[in-house]
Specification:
- The protein contains six helices and 20 strands.
- The two termini are 13 Å apart.
- The chain is elongated, with a radius of gyration of 22 Å.
- It folds into two domains: 169 residues, Chitinase A, domain 3 (Roll); 141 residues, Roll (Chitinase A, domain 3).
- The strands form six sheets. Strands 4, 6, 7, 8, 10 and 11 form a six-stranded antiparallel sheet that branches.
- It is mainly beta.
- β15 and β16 form a beta hairpin.
């Protein structure tokens, strides 16, 4: 199920900017100085970061000049020993960003705490020099990054906006991780059937969906909770984290699934719901569902890819999805968003509009 929009809009904070600007950082500058086991202090080139985890941190730049290489480290180690971050995870984080222009001089430019809109980062899509200080750290950790100034000429060559002067600093509070093959944890209260597809779950793996024989598909959107979650209701405009499988009613064949997507098997997908970035059947069928739910969606063609599906290279006819809603988080306001999102909402099975 591919996105209808060309790109997911996502908050434009330093960590996301670093994904594109890293190519502008010379190789010999990519020498992160991470906090090592047994050490008590961070690299002294980093600003002083204090305050309670989960609240906007205090960052002190007094007496320090912007570094000319990428430096990062763990300010505070979380307590979630059974929730260690892996290099293929999607993580939910609050981020505070500063522009560091001279010794002791820095200005806050963004804060997800102020917007109440955490970011979702797909670590599998980031460079190792960005993920090294996150991987194998527990959820609940606070990490600080300092990035060197970007070369304006290189930014122009790469078609990027002119960089702001000075270095940039990002402080991340890691709240959640979503790992490979993660599914909702509740008990099945329904397996579908009675004119609807039947769904079996063979464990932490892709659900088995069977289309009823000799049965015409419904003409209208049908939704059924297979597992009822106990989380908050999904709201339009939120970022969802989901596992899903999509099959065609006409032949029961799987055309797309997070479980089998090449290069990211079992990694959840992220996208914005209720905003026209996915097919209408998803926008209509998932808004109002509770986080933690597994939902069966039977979507007629007019709410999927319509009569032109074949021309788009999209699956034709009525589509059936089983969606595990792992989480829903607020999105940044439009003026704080930019193209180049934090995740992908679909694979081989759909077309864009």
């Amino acid at each position: 199920m591919r996105l209808r929009a060309a790109a997911i809009a996502a908050p434009c904070f330093a960590v996301l900017l670093a994904v594109t600007s890293c190519s502008a950082i010379p190789e010999d500058w990519r020498t992160p100085a991470f906090l090592k086991s047994g050490e008590e202090e961070l690299d002294d080139r980093l600003p002083e970061v204090s305050g309670e985890f989960g609240k906007e941190p205090k960052v002190d730049f007094s007496g320090k000049a912007p570094p000319q290489e990428q430096v990062s480290g763990v300010v505070e180690k979380g307590s979630g020993e059974n929730e260690l971050i892996r290099d293929s995870d999607i993580v939910q984080a609050d981020v505070v960003e500063y522009q560091w222009t001279a010794e002791g001089k820095a200005k806050q430019t963004q804060s997800t705490y102020e917007a109440d809109a955490p970011i979702l980062l797909n670590l599998g899509q980031l460079n190792e020099d960005l993920t090294e200080s996150l991987v194998n750290q527990p959820v609940g950790s606070r990490v600080v990054y300092a990035f060197p100034p970007q070369d304006p000429a290189q930014a122009q060559q790469q078609g990027q906006p002119s960089p702001k002067p000075g270095s940039s600093v990002s402080v991340l509070d890691i709240h959640e991780r979503y790992g490979e093959s993660e599914v909702v944890s509740g008990e099945h209260t329904s397996n579908g059937g009675d004119g609807m597809p039947t769904v079996k779950q063979p464990g932490h793996d892709e659900p088995d969906i069977t289309i009823p024989e000799d049965t015409d598909p419904p003409e209208k959107l049908k939704t059924e909770q297979l597992i009822e979650g106990d989380g908050p209701e999904v709201k339009a405009g939120q970022q969802l984290v989901v596992q899903y499988t999509g099959v065609q009613w006409k032949n029961g064949e799987t055309f797309d699934a997070t479980w089998t997507r090449q290069g990211a098997e079992g990694v959840p997908a992220t996208f914005i719901i209720g905003d026209g970035q996915v097919i209408k059947g998803w926008d209509k069928g998932l808004v109002g569902q509770k986080v933690g739910s597994r939902v069966l969606l039977v979507i007629p063609p007019d709410l999927a890819y319509g009569d032109s599906a074949a021309q788009q290279g999209a699956p034709e006819g009525t589509l059936v999805f089983v969606v595990d809603i792992l989480d829903a988080v607020n999105s940044a306001p439009p003026e704080e968003q930019s193209g180049g999102g934090s995740g992908s909402g679909g694979g081989s099975g759909g077309g864009s509009s």
